[in-house]
Amino acid sequence: MPKGGNLVKEVRIEPDRPSCAGPYCKVLHCSMGELWRYSRKRTVMFGYVAFIVLGLVTAWLPLLSLILVARFCLGALDAFCCYSSLILLMEVLEPKRRTLAAFGIYTVWGVSVMLYGGLGYFIRDWRILQTAATLPGLLILPALWVIDESPLWLIVNGRPQEALQVFGKVARWHGVDLPPEAEMKKLVEEQAAEAQNTTPKRSSMGSLS
């Protein structure tokens, strides 16, 4: 395949069976649910690192077959990053701020898609466009190593002491005092018991909100 120019011009590509998009998305989203039990923080880190690396690699693949496989994986990782980030936010924010946070995530995504179209007007070589659109993602990498694990995930998975440490760190950042340690432990134990009686995938912090 010759390098440079438009991918559609480099090889004849026509849409086939667009009706498969809906079932594909449902299967993809359901299958990713099992991955989230391996830690919210690690899931977010894996998703963004893999997305950025694969985005840069895709731009310079020589074969159409490899490009299609890479683009398929990028599509999966795009949803993976959005959902994992959203779940982490829902579990660490107080209820009154969750709607705004969810709105913000998808607003940024929508604006980015529009900007990508504008960028494509000025950069006509699809390989350079792919690289230019992926490079800003490197700015998020340092933040991935400083975010904390979800306290709710820690509680549900039998790590209450680590959850208390996260609560203490957040309290110091905001300059507020937590309730006495005994009361915090009681709240954590109540939340853990409630989670055991319902489901470990709940995003509500219950009495800790």
TrEMBL record:
Give the principal location in a single coarse category. membrane
GO CC annotations, alphabetized: membrane
Query: What would you give as a GO molecular function for this chain, any one?
Result: transmembrane transporter activity
Which superkingdom heads the taxonomic lineage of this protein's source? Eukaryota
What's the protein's topology in the membrane? Multi-pass membrane protein
Query: What InterPro entries is this protein classified in?
Result: MFS_sugar_transport-like, MFS_trans_sf
What residue spans carry the region label Disordered? 188-209
Q: Known PANTHER family for this protein?
A: SOLUTE CARRIER FAMILY 22 MEMBER (PTHR24064)
In which organism is this protein found?
Chionoecetes opilio (Atlantic snow crab)
Alphabetical UniProt keywords: Membrane, Transmembrane, Transmembrane helix
Locations listed in the record:
Membrane
Coiled coil location:
none
Compositionally biased intervals (Polar residues):
194-209
**Where are the bilayer-spanning segments?**
45-63, 69-89, 101-122, 128-147
Q: What is the designated name of this protein?
A: Solute carrier family 22 member 13
